[in-house]
Amino acid sequence: MTNTQDTKLNISAGTASVLVATILVAIKLWALGETGSLSIAASLTDSALDLIVSLTGLLAIVYAARPADDDHAFGHSSAEDLAALAQGILVTVSAIVIGWSAIERLLSDAPPPLAAEGAGMIAMGISIVVTLALILWQRRVVARTGKRVVAADSLHYISDLLPNFGAIIALVASSAFGISAIDSVIALAAALLLLFGAWRITKASFDALMDRRADPESIAKVEALVVNWPGILGYHDLKTRTSGDRIFVQVHIELDGAQSLEKAHGIGAGLKHEILRVMPNADVLIHKDPAGDPLSPNRTT
Question: Is the pLDDT of residue 224 over 70?
Answer without folding.
Answer: yes
